[in-house]
Amino acid sequence: MRYAYPCVLNPEEGGGFFVVFPDVPGALTCGDDRTEALEMAADALVAILASHVHNGEDLPTPSAVADGQEVVAVPPVPAAKLALYSAMREQGLSEAALAEQLGLDEASVGKLLDPDRYSHISRVTSALRAVGRSLVVEDRVA
Asked: pLDDT for 22-40, tens place per residue?
């Protein structure tokens, strides 16, 4: 899945923007200008998606971008962790089972799944390979 979600930047009275993600209820933020609003939007998006992981919930699927919307991509390492989490859910694979497969303890796998915790990208991509997935990073014009 591509972890890039459309958002709407609503101008606020007195300046600034209020940001809403139609596909991700609760991912709300604001900024003094467009640049700051989009930076804050990425943080809000990761925070809400991390709460889905912590609560054992499915991740929302991004919809197509409509006119007047901006796209906010989840940064690469949290996106890789979300992909790992989704693959494990699809396969019914527990943290304990993945830990055994990777030769790690369960706490280490928990860190690999937590978008709020730092993990080196190589560790997350190794775990992704173990569940039959790979990570693709692409660039686009900003």
From this structure: 999 999 999 999 999 999 9
Looking at residue 32, the DSSP 8-state letter turns out to be S
In 3D, which of 92, 89, 86 has the Cα closest to residue 2? 86
CA distance 73 to 5: 6
User: What pTM does this model have?
Assistant: 0.92
Q: Residue 24 half-sphere exposure, CB side, CA atoms within 13 Å? A: 32
Pair of tokens at residue 71 = 């796209």
Beta 4-11 vs 17-20: how paired, if at all? antiparallel
DSSP 65: P
| CA nearest neighbour of 20 among 45, 52, 3 | 45
pLDDT digits (tens, 9 = 90+) for 36-77: 999 999 999 999 999 999 999 999 999 999 999 999 999 999
